[in-house]
Amino acid sequence: MDKRRSKILLVLGIVILLFSLYVLSFDPFVAFVGIAVALVSLFNAYQAHKGIKPKFIRNHEEKEEEKLKEEREQNTFYNRQRQRNLEKRQEQAKKQDEREKEDKFNL
């Protein structure tokens, strides 16, 4: 994915740069803005090529990891609670069986 993103950003940066150089003869301000955008695109292409993810993507991934971690903790808590409840029910069922056996013997 990073290699593909790198190629797309590289082509986009080059196209914007060439278009900005063409526009330079008409409107220098627009051309300089275009050159700045092209440089940013080329810088992002370089980062993608090196495998460095943009900050907003890293932040998003960290938030997703935190959510997953909290969800796992919640699940383990609920699983422990279910296990305890199951054990209690089993103990109650054993006690009930014992009571029934005692009642049969007492009759």
TrEMBL record:
Ranges that cross the membrane: 7-23, 29-46
Annotated stretches, region: Disordered: 63-107
Basic and acidic residues composition-biased segments: 63-74, 84-107
Keywords: Membrane, Transmembrane, Transmembrane helix
Name of the protein: Uncharacterized protein
Species this chain originates from: Alloiococcus otitis ATCC 51267
Record lineage: Bacteria, Bacillati, Bacillota, Bacilli, Lactobacillales
